[in-house]
Amino acid sequence: MLRFQSDDDFVEIDLIEQVSAGQPNSGDAELHVRVSSAGFAGHTQPWVELERLQSFCRGLVALGRVRRGEAAIESMSPKELILKIRSSDLLGHMSIEGSTGRGVFQLAAETWWAWHAVHFGFEFDPSQLVAAIRVDWVKRNAET
């Protein structure tokens, strides 16, 4: 699992399922994302396309090596996950920002969805990138 943390603020991302080769949409992945930032918290399980997942993983590996640039990912469904990890200055400090959310069906209204979301952003210790790029699914998707 990926985890970026600063004091009580954190973002966790884990890969739940990745579609097998030979299947329709092979490589696409379902993630589990948990966020707590400035006292606000939420979680969701967005799907991401293979190309976006690979780009994100490659970006993490590059950030871990040179402490410059960014790694970004967005979900297939709009606004379920927007996440960016980037260097915030020339000294190699890192920040994470974004939002995660999901629609929730309101039983009483029968057809109305309420959108629930958490917007987040905080700096974190760049040494956390070392653990991030060692996560199995990150390595696997960065190499392909």
Characterization of this structure:
With 144 residues, this protein is an alpha+beta fold. It is built from three helices and nine strands, in the order E-E-E-E-E-H-E-E-E-E-H-H. It has a single domain, classed as Secreted effector protein pipB2 fold (2-Layer Sandwich). Strands 1, 2, 3, 4 and 5 form a five-stranded antiparallel beta sheet that branches. The protein has a four-stranded antiparallel beta sheet with strand order 6-7-8-9. Helix 1 packs across helix 3. It is globular. The two termini are 19 Å apart. The model has no long low-confidence stretch (mean pLDDT 94).
Number of helices: 3
Average residue pLDDT: 94
> Remind me, CATH topology?
Secreted effector protein pipB2 fold
> How many strands appear in the DSSP assignment?
9
Relative strand content = over 45%
Globally, the shape reads globular
Q: Report how far apart the termini are.
A: 19 Å
Instruction: Give a quick account of the main beta sheet: strands, pairing sense, barrel closure.
Output: 5 strands, antiparallel
CATH architectural type: 2-Layer Sandwich
The tally of structural domains comes to 1
Offer a few descriptive terms.
144 residues; alpha+beta; Secreted effector protein pipB2 fold; 5-stranded antiparallel β-sheet; 4-stranded antiparallel β-sheet; 3 helices; 47% strand
